[in-house]
Amino acid sequence: MSILTERRTYVAGQWVTGDQVIAVENPADETHVADVSATPVAEVERAILAARSAFDDGVWAQRTPRDRAQVLHTLIDHLEANHETLVDTLVAEAGQPARFADETQCRTGISIARQTIDLYLSMRHEEATPVPVDDLTRGRVALSILRHEPVGVVTAITPYNAALIMALQKLIPALMAGNSVILRPSPLTPLSSLIFGHAADAAGLPPGVLSVVAEEGTEGAQLLTTHPAVDMVSFTGSTVAGRNIIAQAAPTVKRLSLELGGKSAQIYLPDALARVGIGAMGVVARTAGQACVAATRMLVPEEHKEEVLERVAAAYNSIKVGSPTDPSALMGPVISAAQRSKCERFVQLAEEQGAKVRAGGKRPEGLDRGYYFEPTVLDLPNNSNPAAQEEIFGPVLGVIGYRDVDDAVRIANDSVYGLSGQVYGADTATAVAVARRIRAGAVNVNTTVFSALAPSGGYKQSGLGRERGPEGIREFQEVKHMSIGELAQ
């Protein structure tokens, strides 16, 4: 494997070396991957002030959209040119199977990035709006214009489970809209994000328009969410962290775009039970359940629950857990010892409140190093079980029985979360009718789509705002109305 060699962080067009380092660990074998130079807090503030200056001076915001698009395509070209090294880096720092790093993070991420540029160019960012007839006849207003303008300085905070693609989902629409951005990756996976500094240099981004800062703690992140020169925070991560960001941003009333936790349900109507094995595999394959949209609650007709449990347990028992570099391994480790302990704790809590382990539930045999946890199936007695209510963020699936469709919808919506959902049924019209009743930001019926054109985001405590799609671009824009008339003589 050949990973990225950069260990410094990138502030306002300059590479910075701090006194402290972030030790990056490979969760697959617990080996030391690299020491990344942590960005000093003073340099984080310099990144903020440089972003403010770059935005206020208009060195990026006042360029034409097509000019910005050309620069960003060059930035993406740099990522593509380093594809193989990026994949190896993602595998090493996150313990992800190589296919996930390659196909999902790199290839899909880059495709979505380019699609986002095209989508932005296809949208109208200034247009005339109707003027009341009375105002026209009195000559008060000659023209009414609606403008979508950049927000200003944006903090982008990304998670460990999909560092590259999440960064692209934030950086490209924010930069296309003319904002200046400071990227702060997860301390667990900072290596891959450093490539954006070199990509910015390769593309000729003006200094201050994009900075990449890294830290092991949260002092810099708190500065990025409280500093009065920052206009917006775009964050993907846990609901707990999201609540903290809301509180930190409140005194300066920053704009927020938050994609937070989830406890999504996949509902199987009686005529779609043949698909439960595939649906169960989708929760843990490649990601080890470390995805906020993972549908970790499987809702099935009560009278067929035992049959479903047998099928799902057989599917999970067939999964090979192993090194991300082993092409025959379908699932790798979770990110850390703490995350593995969380999986163990919730399995125990589930059992204490009446659940039964039908597959997995412990560390796999023969894997003495690395943070592995078996793909686990829980027979949950009801939706009040801790494993049905809390986001575990690991390879743990709970199966819950429902009496009828109304009961299934009630169970699916009985959650503080509302990020996504799935409905499966041979009668598509019936399945769609169920999907319309699910309180979630995205609900898939018998299929899924993931593109720059399809927005995602949460209801309830799963977040604020949207990513991707036209709505995701508008998150990084302010709305200005201009009424224009001639000066009376």
TrEMBL record:
Residues 15-481 form the Aldehyde dehydrogenase domain. The keyword DNA-binding does not apply. Belongs to the aldehyde dehydrogenase family. InterPro entries: Ald_DH/histidinol_DH, Ald_DH_C, Ald_DH_CS_CYS, Ald_DH_CS_GLU, Ald_DH_N, Aldehyde_DH_dom. Keywords: Oxidoreductase. This is aldehyde dehydrogenase (NAD(+)). PROSITE patterns: ALDEHYDE_DEHYDR_CYS (PS00070), ALDEHYDE_DEHYDR_GLU (PS00687). The active site is at 259. It comes from Rhodococcus artemisiae. It catalyses: an aldehyde + NAD(+) + H2O = a carboxylate + NADH + 2 H(+). Its EC number is 1.2.1.3. The lineage of its organism: Bacteria, Bacillati, Actinomycetota, Actinomycetes, Mycobacteriales. Pfam families: Aldedh.
